[in-house]
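User: These chains co-purify. Model them together.
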Amino acid sequence: MDTKHKILDEALTLFSEWGYANVYVNDIAERVGIKAPSLYKHYKNKQAIFDAIIDEMNNRFMEQASQLNINGMDPTKDADIYKNMNEDSMIELGKNLFLYYLHDDYTKRFRKMLTIEQFHDKDLAAVYQSQYYDMPLSYQGMLLGLMAAQGILITDNVPIMTLHFYAPIYLLLTVCDREPKREKEALKTLEEHLRQFDKLYGRSIA
Amino acid sequence: MDTKHKILDEALTLFSEWGYANVYVNDIAERVGIKAPSLYKHYKNKQAIFDAIIDEMNNRFMEQASQLNINGMDPTKDADIYKNMNEDSMIELGKNLFLYYLHDDYTKRFRKMLTIEQFHDKDLAAVYQSQYYDMPLSYQGMLLGLMAAQGILITDNVPIMTLHFYAPIYLLLTVCDREPKREKEALKTLEEHLRQFDKLYGRSIA
DNA sequence: CTTGACGGCTAATCAGAATTAGCCTATAAT
DNA sequence: ATTATAGGCTAATTCTGATTAGCCGTCAAG
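Assistant: Joint model of the four components:
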């Protein structure tokens, strides 16, 4: 990886753990394996490093969103993927979602950084809201809605059902971000949550 | 309020919005209405202010916990309070919990500060975990468990039912912390969540 | 071969924020 | 009345961390 990019990478790691203000350009340089002044050959200043990270994130999220939209717009694609959905699809969806959020290194660091910086930056708050509230609810709402349409799940209120699906996942995620050692426990709880969710909304109860 | 305490109060306000490192002793002093050096008549240094806030919080939480414990230990007290519980009790419990967390000024500021500082301080992470995961689940688990014992709620897994009750409340709380303007929307969602929860677990379904 | 851009380094410099020194006033206890 | 203390102020001082200056080696393009 070229230095310029390694700087962003290491900076993100540090920012996500300590917050912007607690990280010194020196720390970043050290991890990159150069001296602090050399950073300035690549970025105008510390703030520019932060901004570049945000930019990169925006790009990634934009890609991600456009992909979702394309699928959302194209019923054949959806049908293709979800034509043989069943109860297990839902459980898979939950587990995959959780594990992706939890283990994807970039996502994880970015989420933690957002968590730390959200309150003093409106834009970051908005990004957080979008990534961890609005988009998950609407995207998963679409999937669960499909399942409901097929009678796999039963409800008269898809958004709230989606909330019931997602909120525990989110809560467990924050637990693991805070104390990774609780991951095993969280995974067990996740399993139980999904099984119970299936009992509550699955056709088994009808 | 005496100066010494006002310092803690204003510092907490600032820390909860900007994080420890982004707040200057000058800012605190200004809000208190004194000059920065005067702060040092009350606290050894900036860190001591932070520590005093944590101390105060520990005391409050300890009190709170001991009260819960006393109730938990004393079945007559519980019976007294919860003998005529019904579906509405559960809805009340949810709304009160949410509104208390959301509007209690001290709680709110402290929660936001914890959110910001949690990742670089094991102790704070533990406090957060306790206050917003373990304790709510165990305390509400007790209450919902009582309701289940009385047949008001039906489940074979009280902990997961409690998670289903609490996780959406927590998620909506974080939404409001981030963007208070979404409070109305969140309250509406909360209502729907609780009604749906009642449908899913209440005896109406049995 | 030689030159200029790139990216590294050391040694300043700058800026800003925490903290200390030392003084002053009010007040409460002797 | 005297004095000790609490708590405020202004004016340093100190510390720390970001940034700049200026030097140097490498290497690719001409």
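The mean pLDDT of chain B is 91.
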